[in-house]
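Friendly challenge for the regulars: who can give me the structure tokens for this chain first? No prize, just bragging rights.
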Amino acid sequence: MRIIRAEEGVPSANASGETVVCLGFFDGVHTGHAKLIGLAAEIARPHGWRVCVHTFDRMPAQVVRPEFAPRELTPLAEKAALLQSLGVDIMAVSPFDEAMMRMRAGDFVRQILAEKLRAAWVVAGFHHRFGFRNEAGVRELEGFCGRAGIGLSVMEPVKTPEGLLVSSTAIRNLLDAGDVAAAEAMLGRPLTTVSML
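First reply, four minutes later:
Bragging rights claimed.
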């Protein structure tokens, strides 16, 4: 797996050089994230595209509202190792700074996804939001991608057998409640990360 700065763009490694980009912060790299990446791989494989995960160097909440930012489940280096184990080809990291915080959703699709990451397709979760002040959701993303000639797949919620929505927030809540087994079930692996303990 190659780790790149998103703003520098993906290197061309095949005839098309195109990617399927997964959107999200991927904190914890849990079972929901694994299914999202698996869907991206299914889309990419027949075309010879590469699976690219776009993420940030820090949790956006640490910049937007630092006093309310939750603890991060997986530091960037561990996140990279976990994404590599899931078969991701490229991890594209953007610095979440003042400029990124103020970037409009349409600009993000055009400048980052289309121009820099060479996205042929985008995969996002049903509740994904992005852009200045979280201005856009998947409905707006569909419009932006359509205008840029990029395909889009929106993944439905991933739930546990008990019907709980798998999310980084849910994992934090389970850990706070001392329910390590339930947190591990959502993670899809044993709890080994020091930052989670």
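The domain at 2-8+17-162 is CATH 3.40.50.620 (Rossmann fold). Residues 31-44 form the longest helix (14 residues). Your move, everyone else.
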